[in-house]
């Protein structure tokens, strides 16, 4: 698989290039909605990425990998200077993985296998296929992580979530959002649970974590990020971030520096 391993502006044909292995992409680079006949794994060895489908948005920092099954329309946005690795999964191996888009934790073995597959030319016939089989086997046993932000279908709920997406730091209560979109607090609360399978508080926290990952990856401090994303103080932000990611924002940023070396 050809690769581009040095940080540089993405070429006009970046999508075609990185579908073959890896590339460095600048902060904010986007791949418009598209789909593949095969499945696709996308891993940010440094930086972070968001994958969006009709079922919602998944964010993957450097210790996560996104999975998109065949023929799911999806788009990507990259945060920070991103060392992105893309791997196509043949249809016969897709059956080993779940049938919906998701994010998985990246074990040390999985990371090394992904780097080897996207860095090294194939020296022996079938070597890449065997390495890909190891990756799929690791993912088949991996647990899904909690960085999924589902999409609303009800017009009132979608209007409420659109307000929050436009302004993640917005401090509106559920009742205030209801008045803005023409629904009662009780109705909106029910819709969050029935349509999105999470509470209003959990959905907004996940949205803010998505934005926090982007800000931290782009070099914003922990305090600046907590303010930008709507937390009342840095300690509250640190607690929420640690609950979802399993590490503090400071440790996450330290890991970014290690991965970027």
Automatic annotation (TrEMBL):
Nucleotide-binding is among the record's keywords: no
Gene Ontology molecular function terms on file: DNA-binding transcription factor activity; sequence-specific DNA binding
Recorded superkingdom: Bacteria
PROSITE patterns to which the protein is assigned, alphabetical: HTH_ARAC_FAMILY_2
InterPro entries assigned to the protein according to its UniProt record, in alphabetical order: Homeodomain-like_sf, HTH_AraC, RmlC_Cupin_sf
SUPFAM superfamilies recorded: Homeodomain-like, RmlC-like cupins
Keyword Heme appears in the UniProt entry: no
Keywords, alphabetical: DNA-binding, Repressor, Transcription, Transcription regulation
Pfam families, per database record: HTH_18
Domain HTH araC/xylS-type as annotated: residue spans: 158-255
Protein's UniProt name: HTH-type transcriptional regulator RipA
């Amino acid at each position: 698989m050809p690769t581009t391993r040095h940080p540089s502006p993405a070429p006009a044909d970046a999508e075609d290039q990185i579908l073959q292995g890896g590339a460095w992409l600048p902060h904010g680079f986007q791949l418009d909605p598209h789909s593949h006949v095969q499945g696709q794994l996308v891993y940010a060895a440094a930086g972070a990425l968001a994958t969006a489908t009709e079922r919602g948005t998944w964010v993957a920092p450097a210790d996560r990998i996104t999975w998109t099954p065949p023929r799911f329309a999806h788009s990507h946005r990259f945060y920070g200077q991103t060392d992105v690795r893309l791997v196509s999964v043949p249809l016969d191996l897709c059956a080993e993985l779940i049938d919906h888009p998701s994010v998985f934790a990246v074990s040390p073995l999985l990371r090394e296998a992904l780097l080897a597959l996207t860095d090294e030319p194939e020296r022996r016939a079938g070597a890449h296929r065997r390495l890909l089989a190891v990756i799929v086997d690791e993912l088949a046993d991996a647990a899904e992580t909690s960085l999924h932000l589902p999409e609303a279908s009800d017009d009132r709920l979608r209007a409420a979530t659109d307000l929050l997406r436009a302004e993640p730091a917005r401090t509106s209560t559920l009742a205030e959002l209801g008045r803005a979109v023409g629904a009662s607090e009780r109705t909106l609360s029910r819709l969050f649970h029935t349509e999105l399978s999470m509470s209003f508080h959990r959905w907004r926290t996940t949205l803010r974590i998505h934005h926090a990952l982007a800000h931290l990856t782009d070099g914003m401090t922990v305090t600046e990020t907590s303010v930008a994303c709507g937390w009342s103080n840095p300690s509250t932000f640190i607690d929420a971030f640690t609950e979802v990611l399993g590490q503090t924002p400071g440790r996450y940023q330290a890991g970014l520096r290690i991965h970027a070396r």
